[in-house]
Every structure is written in C-alpha cells, then in structure tokens.
C-alpha cells in the first residue's frame, strides 16, 4: 500500500491518500467537527465510452449507446432487495449519476458512517443481472428518455450539441435512445462492468469528520476477491472530430411559454492535459463571467431591454477529447439576443477585454472557490470529476491566481469563434 498526505497551504486543507495493492486509489479529506459526511465511489466510465479494446485483445468492442447509464440503474438492484432500503434504514441518503465521462455512486450521512461506507463498497461490486430484470429495466429507461424528450431545457441543450459535434458521441443523450437501449443485453452489461468497474479505473473520495485509517480499513475489508485490476489499460476509441460544426442553427417547437436559446461554442484545442487542461478550463470560466456575467455590460443592457431574465447563465464543459461553452436562457426575442452577443464578441476582439472587469472576476472566483470548501458535496464531486480528467483539485487556486489578461485574451479570441458556434432554439408550438 502507498501512503502519503497532500497539502494545500492556500486552502489549509489536507488529503490523506492511499493506493491499495490492487490499484484502487482512496482520498480522504478530514473536516473536523463537520456534521455531514460524504463518500463517492466512482468509475472512469461514461456515456461516450461505447467503443473500446480490452487489454490483451485486438478486436474493438462496440456497445449500444446508453449502456453506462443502464448499468448505473442496475447496480441498485440485488437479490436481497433494493439498495435504497439498506441506506434509508441507517438514515442516510444514497444517489448516483452518469455523465459523459464517469459514473459515480455516493451517499451522505451524519451517523454510522462506516456502516454506510461498507454498503457502498459492497453494492458497487455486486451487479445483479438477469435476462428478466434487464428486460424490465428497458421499459423504465424508455420512460425516462421520453420524459427528457419533452423537457425543453434538455432539448435546447442536446440540440446544441448535435449541431456542434459531427462525430463525437458527446452529442448523444447520456441515457441513449429508445432504439439503443432495446439492443442492450445482459452479456454486454457484464462485459462493460468487468472492463470498467475495476480498481485501477476507479476512485473513492471521502470528506467529513472521519478517521482516514478506519475508513481505509473498512474499504479493504469489504473488497471482494474478484475485484482485481485489468492487466493493462482499456483503449477507448473515439472518432476523429473536425473543428467545424455540423449545423449553425437548430430550431424545435415545443410546449413552452417563452423561447429558450443556447449559444454553443466548440473547443478546437483538445490536446491538453494536467495543469494546462485545468488552465484552459479556468480561463474559459473567467471569460464567461467577465464578458457575460451578471455584472457585465452586455448582461445589464439585455436585461434592461427585457430581452433576458434571471435564467440567463453560462457554463463550460470539457474533457480531454472535447469542450464547449454555452450561453443560454429565455427570451421573447432570442434572435436579438444572439445578434447582440455576436456583436459584443466582435467588439471585444477589436477593443480587448476590460482589465478591471477581469481582475474583479478573478478575485471573485478565488473567493468563491475557497468558500466552496465548506461544502462536502462540492469537494467530493469536483475532486472526482477533475481526477478522471487527470487534474488535481488542489491545483485550482494556484492556476487561478496565475491567470493574466494576456493569456485570457488569447483564449477568448481562440474559443469564441462565431464560425464554430451553434444557435439552438426551442420555440412555443404554433
């Protein structure tokens, strides 16, 4: 077992690190006197991982879309009954999520932490799959997919991604399609489970007033003999993605009272890793807040003109193979909003970003990041998300403090390219 401690002098926080002999990495961030305790057991396996080569094999395996999300559903079943009941008897909350890059199982509690941790470790290692319960689950997930198809926020988001990406599977709904889930079978689920739910592809992160040694001992005691690493790394196969977008404008009519819009910008520099990848992430988020945040000139003008409301927001999502920024909200005239945002981008490319606005947003971002360490959920979820991208969360403040206007301006000019953008609209039914 490898043991060490990771410190952040800026945050005044410490992470206890353990790497077990089977390759499983465990991180514990002790928070003395905190009432809530939180744990995540995650695997680096998400909705985009549909084509891969297993170590020792030559032939690529391609599975139906939505299989990672399907597996997440099935792990909550067992021969003894539902996993939710085991946690609720201890007064704790359990949940899970699948995103583009990972699947995570988590719980929070105020008492009986080690008992909860034992259940988490146990059920994630115990897939209960039969032909009958797999078939039954298809109907449940079909209902979930159809529910999202009627959700205007979901539609405006994924329509934007479908316009943005030509080949990359990030454009496909995380749950898959109705057609793809009905092609999933028990054997494929087990193949994916045995490929990605292995110790050298997973991580455990714990935060709260817990004893790190006790937690690690509990984890080791509950690891099963069959929980072994693969002899090598899975080769994930992704299609080549060109820099251009598929469609610059996508419209759909749904039952909404006011039109929704997403303006998406495609990342074209996806060759970064580690701190450089983190820097790109932070630069982009600082730009979005500086240029389009609630204290920006364009926000005030659009808001005062009644063209946007408080639902106007921005986000940047990325991994090592893709990245995109989204500016979205509601508007009675989304075309005018789009025109105004395009004009503002062109103006700032000519005039340059405002140094005072940049410095203000940077200081705000530093304060927000430090204060976010009061949330055990933020720490665990953000650490895990960055971990699977090869990034150490403790580097965030250092990289943020080192940002300068010159580097941020370069990123702005590169990323906010109107020729690599998509306008996605959801409008009221006629």
UniProtKB/TrEMBL annotation:
Gene3D superfamilies: Metalloenzyme, LuxS/M16 peptidase-like. InterPro entries: Metalloenz_LuxS/M16, MPP/UQCRC_Complex, Pept_M16_N, Peptidase_M16_C. SUPFAM superfamilies: LuxS/MPP-like metallohydrolase. It holds the Pfam family Peptidase_M16. GO terms for molecular function: metal ion binding. Residues 184-363 form the Peptidase M16 C-terminal domain. Residues 65-177 form the Peptidase M16 N-terminal domain. It comes from the Bacteria. This is Predicted Zn-dependent peptidase. It comes from Maledivibacter halophilus.
């Amino acid at each position: 077992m490898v043991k060490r401690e990771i410190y952040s002098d800026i945050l005044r926080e410490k992470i206890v690190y353990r790497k077990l002999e089977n390759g499983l990495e465990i991180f514990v961030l002790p928070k003395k006197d905190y009432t809530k305790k939180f744990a995540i057991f995650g695997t680096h396996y998400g909705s985009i991982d549909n084509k891969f080569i297993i170590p020792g094999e030559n032939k690529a395996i391609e599975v139906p879309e939505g299989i990672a999300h399907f597996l997440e559903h099935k792990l909550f079943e067992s021969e003894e009954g539902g996993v939710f009941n085991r946690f609720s008897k201890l007064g704790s909350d359990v949940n899970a999520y699948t995103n583009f890059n990972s699947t995570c199982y988590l719980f929070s509690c105020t008492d009986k932490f080690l008992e909860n941790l034992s259940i988490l470790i146990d059920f994630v290692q115990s897939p209960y799959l039969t032909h009958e319960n797999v078939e039954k689950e298809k109907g449940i997930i079909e209902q979930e997919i159809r529910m999202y198809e009627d959700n205007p926020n979901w539609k405006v988001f994924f329509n934007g991604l479908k316009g943005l990406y030509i080949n990359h599977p990030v454009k496909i709904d995380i749950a898959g399609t109705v057609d793809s889930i009905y092609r999933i079978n028990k054997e494929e689920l087990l193949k994916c489970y045995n490929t990605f739910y292995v110790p050298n592809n997973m991580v455990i992160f714990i935060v709260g007033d817990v004893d790190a040694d006790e937690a690690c001992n509990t984890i080791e005691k509950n690891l099963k003999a069959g929980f072994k690493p693969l002899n090598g790394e899975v080769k994930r196969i992704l299609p080549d993605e060109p820099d251009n977008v598929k469609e610059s404008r996508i419209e759909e009519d749904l039952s909404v009272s006011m039109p929704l819009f997403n303006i998406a910008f495609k990342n074209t520099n996806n060759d970064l890793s580690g701190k450089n990848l983190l820097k790109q992430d932070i630069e982009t988020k600082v730009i979005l807040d500086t240029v389009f945040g609630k204290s920006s000139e364009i926000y005030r003008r659009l808001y005062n003109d009644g063209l946007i409301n408080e639902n106007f927001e921005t986000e940047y999502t990325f991994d090592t193979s893709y990245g995109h920024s989204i500016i979205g909200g509601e508007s009675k005239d989304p075309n005018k909003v789009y025109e105004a945002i395009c004009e503002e981008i062109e103006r700032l490319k000519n005039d340059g970003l405002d140094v005072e606005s940049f410095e203000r947003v940077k200081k705000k971002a530093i304060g927000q990041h430090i204060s976010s360490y009061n949330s055990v959920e933020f720490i665990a979820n953000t650490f895990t998300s960055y971990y699977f991208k090869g990034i150490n969360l403790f580097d965030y403040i250092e990289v943020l403090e080192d940002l300068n206007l010159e580097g941020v301006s370069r990123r702005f000019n590169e990323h906010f390219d109107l020729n690599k953008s998509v306008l996605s609209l959801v409008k009221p039914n006629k």
